[in-house]
Amino acid sequence: MISRTKRTSLWLLGLTAGLILTILISLNLGTMSISPIDVWRTMIGQGTDQNQLVLFDFRLPRIVIALLIGAGMAISGAILQGVTHNDLADPGILGINSGAGFAVVLFIYLTQNSLTSTVFILPLAALGGAVLAAALIYLISWKNGVSPIRLILVGIGINAAFSALIIVFQLKMDPDDFTKAQIWLTGNIAGTDWSYTLALLPWIVILLPIAFYKASTLDALHLGDETAQGIGANVEKERIFLLVIAVALAGASVAVGGAIAFLGLVIPHLARKLVGARHHHMLLTSALLGALLLLVADTIGRNILSPSEIPVGIIVSLIGGSYFVYLLMKS
Amino acid sequence: MAIRTDNNMQSRPLLALLIIFGGIILLMAAMILSIIYGAADIDLPTIWQSLTQFDPSQTAHQIIRNLRIPRGLAAALVGAALAVSGAIMQGMTRNALASPSIMGVTAGASFMIAVAMAISSQVTTISLAIWAFAGAGLGAGIVFGVGTISKSGLTPVKLALAGTAVTSMLSALSSGIAIHFNIAKDMSFWYAGGVASVQWIHVKLLAPIVIIGLILALLLSKSITVLNLGEDVARGLGQRTVLTKIIATTVVLLLTGAAVSVAGTVGFIGLVIPHITRFLVGVKYQWIIPAAAVLGALLLVLADTASRMVNPPFETPIGTMTALVGVPFFLYLARREGRGL
């Protein structure tokens, strides 16, 4: 029997290797297939102009953004599950995604702007929506404290409310904006360029380390409120701080990638299975797994019906949803 | 579970009768309101004339006969169908959250309609309905299946979660199909359409199914009252619970499938109306089912009329109007539910 830490290191190593391999495959596949040798040549600056354009301006930003969103959503889910000590919590189920979605749809509707021209403001709008949804859920579930089950049921209700509102505004849009919003709501990272990546990067780069730093607090909260208080954690304050981090991560990811469901739910589960429940290991594994899953899903969505694309959210929903149903049957 | 703790084991037949007959009168009034109000305002004498001395050359008569009346009738039928489906589901599963939209039935139906529209651009109303039935069965089958297979059984929370999961999977698939086959706009018009574009053919399709469904539901109502006491009690009283459940599920699928195929996804009626009805008339499903049918019809006709009044000349999707009523109610249930679980 190998030790836990050693096992974790092995998994982390394996996942990193898998990630690098997937990145290479993803660079290589597409409407225009570029052979691995040409990928390499282009990477070291000796490729043709056309290859350079496809790889650096189309595929690479999309890959980076898939990695960022995957990691962001997964960590958001992991934090939410730790904070609510409920393994079924996730930004999608709690209605945080649809809150962000509502804000974005409202924003598109009010400004009549296309999605591309507002790339730096959209994350802020989404963030506002996510915070609004989270605050509503927290306030409505509050009744001498926040019971995890109540939190989830209230989340389902909030989700329904925002989904209804989204439809109202969506139906008032002109056909072009409508289809864009629809694709966005399904979860999609097509048509990304570096500006999207740059819009998202600071959020992830700042928030992920904070999440990792708070790993031991999450460990304490996951044990339950009484135990956490017993070992000296200021439960309510820590909970709100961590919720803010989770909501910010989800909001920023959703703003760029759309409402990708199930990622935040499923990845922490898998990570827990692989390396155990301690957040020091689990969070890192979740980040890698989330990045990997989203990149794999996007690569599949991009290629399976090429030249037309399947939004990545659909692929993730299918993979994640089946796994979630399996979890429900086992629990 | 909330229903059981709520049960004060009383039934109020007089109030129930009052609700049923008073409700029918109110329903008539609401239908007239719904016929009067719209993009073209119409007065009462014209309505009467269009019924007694129909003159095809008059636009107002045409509007009344071919747009407003079928629309009002369809709203009433859909409301009744969804409310009764919800009542049966809640009674049968003793689960306060059971309802067509939460349990994946509506998502299943919309999924199959996406499939139908993708396969052929010229789908007839009838075949659309058949697809919706199949889809309703698919959605409910998966959600029920997950709940039943799982070790700790069908708790309300698990049901809500399984329903949410299956719903988002199926709607992801639907929008995938919609985007890929370029039918997104058709789909979402149907999805949020409500009863705006209902024609007589829809009513002719809907009416017999809903009437048969309601009769079956009334015949079953006594068994559902017994089943609501708990499966063991029901078996002890000599009820063939499996048979009751199979028939009841079939009725639910018939009613929901028909409603969804005509009106798209109208949420929350099936959740809210049975609760209100139970609160008013007590625990006997012999009274709950007819009263829920009347109240459901009334609520949907009013919601449909309101959807035209909110932001004229645009129509607000009817699902939004029902969500406006339904979500606060759901949140109230969720707050209460959290304590006993």
Explain the overall architecture.
The complex is a heterodimer of chains A (331) and B (341). In chain A, helix 5 packs across helix 6. Chain A has a single domain, classed as ABC transporter involved in vitamin B12 uptake, BtuC. Chain A is globular. Chain A contains 14 helices and no strands. With 331 residues, chain A is mainly α. Chain A starts with a helix and ends with a helix. Chain B is an all-alpha fold and 341 residues long. Chain B has a single domain (7-338), classed as Orthogonal Bundle (ABC transporter involved in vitamin B12 uptake, BtuC), CATH 1.10.3470.10. Helices cover 78% and strands 0% of the residues of chain B. Chain B is globular, with a radius of gyration of 20 Å. The termini of chain B are close together. Classes of the chains: A mainly alpha (331), B mainly alpha (341). Chains A and B meet through helix 6, helix 7 and helix 14 of A and helix 6, helix 7, helix 8 and helix 14 of B. Chain A: Pfam families: FecCD (PF01032). Chain A: Belongs to the binding-protein-dependent transport system permease family. FecCD subfamily. Chain A: Keywords: Cell membrane, Membrane, Transmembrane, Transmembrane helix, Transport. Chain A: Its main location: membrane. Chain A: The chain crosses the membrane at residues 12-34, 63-80, 92-111, 117-139, 151-171, 194-213, 240-267, 279-297, 309-329. Chain B: It is a multi-pass membrane protein.
